[in-house]
């Protein structure tokens, strides 16, 4: 689960990390009051979306020469004006994809004078199964590009969970970032704080880009991106409360409410499968037969008829779906339950695209009978390869 920059900065502030003063703004008429509560003489007006690259992004509705999603202002009036311009419009960055994201919240921040922009991140490193620090002197830029062109400018190391964070970790980062004197002390303390926050809140990712040295020579977190482990959210009511459902794919959101493992993809064939392994295999074989899956969907082992109905509705609500493949290997999941769910869903939402059903396993005969007696226009398949071939042929002709 991701949160907005202003929420991440509030968390950082509560742990004592250095961030600027700022005010979130949800409605245009709040902008002037919010900006007026900050000291100036520089204000930064920042679009709040769950994607990076806002500064270099552009609005779909932009006038020629208009700036991106991070704007500097020299007065309260100017700050309020920029906030109003951005609210409600669609910001496209290299992380949003071409569709962009609607800006529903703005963060107005006290502007900082920047001496240097640095990069810092903490993440769960799957290779070492540990938390890793990543830092670079090349802050403010796309870190993927730095990694690609000048990998020697990135320092990365993991922390032994038995000892946890130690001051020498912080010194190592400070020296690699070229920090001096008081800044080294500030860095050691800040890294300690960030590591503690990361562990205590079960984060997956924490990125400060840029971490800056101000004109006064102090460290400050100028941007903040946080991602939390969805499986641990139940332990953190404070984090769960920060969820912004408007930032999530509406189909994925509906799926999460029914406890379905669903991920939207770009292809044309909707898949309903039980078991993550079978779902992966189904996606692979669809690709092998020359088409692309529209989603990953694992309805799980103990799915009810209601859950299957909901899953089917989510698949058919995707306008890119040109055909549906139901591929069930009934173990704990019974084929007759799946069949009933599919039929209930089709009765409710109709069926505008070809449907291939492959059932195998527990109660397979009952399942097939239910489908055959339903009067639905279903293409039956006997095995995985046959099923994939049939749906691809039905869609591509
Ligand atoms: P991102 O583009 O989504 O990563 O948004 P950031 O918060 O990182 O802002 C983008 C860039 O705007 C930063 O790299 C800075 O160069 C600039 N910026 C952001 N805040 C300030 C500020 O307080 N003062 C100044 N001078 N520039 C800022
Ligand atoms: Mn940034």
Automatic annotation (TrEMBL):
Coiled coil: none annotated. ATP binds at residues 46, 53-55, 109, 112, 117. Signal peptide: none annotated. Transmembrane segments: none annotated. It comes from the Bacteria. One of its GO terms (cellular component) is succinate-CoA ligase complex. Substrate binds at residues 274, 331-333. Binds 1 Mg(2+) ion per subunit. Its EC number is 6.2.1.5. InterPro entries: ATP-grasp_succ-CoA_synth-type, ATP_grasp_subdomain_1, Succ-CoA_synthase_bsu_CS, SUCC_ACL_C, Succ_CoA_ligase-like_bsu, Succinyl-CoA_synth-like. Mg(2+) binds at residues 209, 223. Keywords: ATP-binding, Ligase, Magnesium, Metal-binding, Nucleotide-binding, Tricarboxylic acid cycle. Residues 272-392 form the ATP-citrate synthase/succinyl-CoA ligase C-terminal domain. Pfam families: ATP-grasp_2, Ligase_CoA. Its cofactor is Mg(2+). It catalyses: (S)-malate + ATP + CoA = (S)-malyl-CoA + ADP + phosphate; GTP + succinate + CoA = succinyl-CoA + GDP + phosphate; succinate + ATP + CoA = succinyl-CoA + ADP + phosphate. PROSITE patterns: SUCCINYL_COA_LIG_3. GO terms for molecular function: ATP binding; magnesium ion binding; malate-CoA ligase activity; succinate-CoA ligase (ADP-forming) activity; succinate-CoA ligase (GDP-forming) activity. Belongs to the succinate/malate CoA ligase beta subunit family. Heterotetramer of two alpha and two beta subunits. HAMAP family: Succ_CoA_beta. Succinyl-CoA synthetase functions in the citric acid cycle (TCA), coupling the hydrolysis of succinyl-CoA to the synthesis of either ATP or GTP and thus represents the only step of substrate-level phosphorylation in the TCA. The beta subunit provides nucleotide specificity of the enzyme and binds the substrate succinate, while the binding sites for coenzyme A and phosphate are found in the alpha subunit. This is Succinate--CoA ligase [ADP-forming] subunit beta. The lineage of its organism: Bacteria, Pseudomonadati, Pseudomonadota, Alphaproteobacteria, Rhodobacterales.
